[in-house]
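Hi support team,

I've been running sequence recovery on a batch of backbones for a student project. Most finish fine, but this one hangs at about 90% for roughly twenty minutes before it completes. I'm not sure whether the input is malformed or the queue is just slow. I've pasted the structure tokens below so you can try to reproduce it. Let me know if you need the job ID as well.

Thanks,
M.K.
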């Protein structure tokens, strides 16, 4: 079993993620493993644009954040950083990710760029941050 799969199952058993989140993550790992094994580039059809941007934060202190942002809000020009809780934004900034740069992209280009977005942060003090589209 791959390290990624083991990590996902550990997070599930520790209650850091829900069963649905684990299933989604395992599906993504499986897809990327299949692509790597087949040496075939994965091409997403245009009609499978992501519908949501997800931000999931589990702090070592027991705080949990689970944000599901419809892509339609992003298309209307709302800034991602304005939707994110301060703790989550700080954790993302600490990892060198500046979401404010995304506001200058045209909406269609932003949605296209977000299609393959996956951010996974595991801090030394036990905090986890996951940002992905679905």
């Amino acid at each position: 079993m791959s390290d990624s799969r083991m990590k996902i199952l550990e997070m599930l058993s520790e209650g850091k993620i829900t069963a649905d989140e684990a299933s989604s993550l395992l599906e993504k790992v499986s897809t990327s493993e299949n692509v790597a094994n087949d040496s075939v580039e994965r091409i997403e059809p245009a009609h499978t644009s992501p519908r949501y941007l997800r931000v999931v934060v589990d702090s070592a202190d027991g705080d949990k954040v689970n944000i599901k942002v419809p892509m339609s809000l992003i298309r209307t020009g709302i800034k991602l950083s304005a939707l994110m809780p301060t703790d989550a934004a700080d954790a993302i900034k600490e990892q060198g990710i500046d979401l404010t740069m995304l506001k200058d992209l045209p909406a269609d280009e932003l949605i296209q760029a977000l299609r393959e977005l996956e951010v996974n942060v595991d801090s030394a003090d036990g905090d986890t941050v996951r940002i992905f589209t679905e």
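--
Follow-up from support: It reproduced on our side and the slowdown came from queue contention, not your input. The chain is about 45% helix and 20% strand. No action needed from you.
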